[in-house]
Amino acid sequence: MKKLSSVTRRSFLSNTRGHGRALIWLSAVNFGLLIALYIIESRTAERHWLGTLITYAPQHFYCLPSLILLAWAGFRKNGRAMAINLAALAFFGTALLGFCVPWRAEIDGLGGPHAQRKHIRVMTYNIHHSQNGGILVADEIRKAKPDVVFLQEANALLDWSSAVSEFLHSDPSWRLIDYGELAILSRYPIKEHAISQMEWTTGRIIVKAVLDVEGRSVTVIDVHLNSSLRSGLTDFRGVSLADRLNAASRTRLVQLDALLNVTRRIPGPLIVAGDFNTPPRGELYRRMSARLTDAFGYAGWGVGYTFRSDVPAMRIDYVFLGNGVRAERCWAPHTQVSDHLPLVADVELPR
């Protein structure tokens, strides 16, 4: 009996070690797959339909294997496997979810007082054509207390009341640039404004204005890029999902090129805001953030989801800053007046 018990014990220990090694191996493979996902999303998105689908989909489901393996490792009291899965979740949160910590803004803010610099608050908001009522949208804008507001889908449809009209009715001192789907509201005088075409088949435009901010000329740009499943006036009936995604990606990259060409010709302080319909990963975001600073990525805390407002799952609305403009704080106020959440940023203009 003692001999049998000893054999059984050795067999049990051997199986336990085998299960432990298998758990560590599975955890390492899962971590490797997350890294592969990140490479795909950062290098092939918008270049291949499958990369676009993986990149533009909500990322939350990709962490499920890590959570399951972490629970298994905890049950087995396997320290190595727990460490691997905790590292995988940390990588997932930063690289795939885009979790941000405003460490750069805090470090840059340690350089002393900024009394001689001008601080303004900007807000970008896709208001979904004031579907839930212009009064409610106007109230949300007032709550944020912005100095400059970038609106997308600003034109009211059907018999919905216009948010722009409601807002100006309550405070007619604001200046307005209205190009239908895009509009800019400003507390400051507007020195000039113009539009540029992004790509003729899409009907999308770039609205550019120069504001006089207490004697400083600040250029602001409002944009709304196509979604990942839409390519302007293309008829998608009978078209496969792969062809549809590829066509939409080509259009969006053309739109981005047009926008970047406009920004390169602007010498002074620059603020670009709007609904970019792209997550904080992929080629489109990488090219934009290489030219301009993502205000939330620089000074925001958390994931900053702006879509959808009822079940926030993606960050697709942005404030980008250039030519010396610095973000101090950036956040997405919670509201369900539109299908998007607004994005608000406190920014500091250069001297």
Describe how the helices and strands are arranged:
Elements: H1 2-43, H2 49-56, H3 64-76, H4 79-96, H5 103-108, E1 119-126, H6 134-144, E2 148-152, H7 163-170, E3 175-179, E4 182-186, E5 190-199, E6 204-213, E7 216-224, H8 241-264, E8 270-275, H9 283-291, E9 293-294, H10 295-299, E10 317-322, E11 326-331, E12 343-348
Parallel strand pairs: 1-2, 7-8
Antiparallel strand pairs: 1-12, 2-4, 3-4, 5-6, 6-7, 8-10, 9-10, 11-12
Walkthrough of the structure:
The chain is of the alpha+beta class and 351 residues long. It folds into 2 domains: 2-95; 103-348, Endonuclease/exonuclease/phosphatase (Deoxyribonuclease I, Chain A, 4-Layer Sandwich). It has 10 helices and 12 strands. Strand 5 and strand 6 (204-213) form a beta hairpin. The termini are far apart.
Number of helix segments?
Answer: 10
Secondary-structure element string:
HHHHHEHEHEEEEEHEHEHEEE
Q: In whole angstroms, how far apart are the ends?
A: 87 Å
Percentage of residues in helical conformation? 40-55%
| Biggest sheet strand line-up | 3-4-2-1-12-11
Strand count, sense and closure of the main sheet?
A: 6 strands, mixed
Q: Can you identify the CATH class of the largest domain?
A: Alpha Beta
* Overall average residue pLDDT: 89
The stretches of 5 or more residues where confidence is low (pLDDT under 50) are none
**Using DSSP, what is the number of strands?**
12
- Looking at this structure, what is the CATH superfamily of the largest domain? Endonuclease/exonuclease/phosphatase
* Annotated CATH topology of the largest domain: Deoxyribonuclease I, Chain A
Measured by DSSP, the beta-strand proportion falls in 15-25%
Class inferred from helices and paired strands: alpha+beta
In the CATH hierarchy, the architecture of the largest domain is: 4-Layer Sandwich
Please give the domain count.
Answer: 2
| Form type | elongated
Q: Report Rg.
A: 25 Å
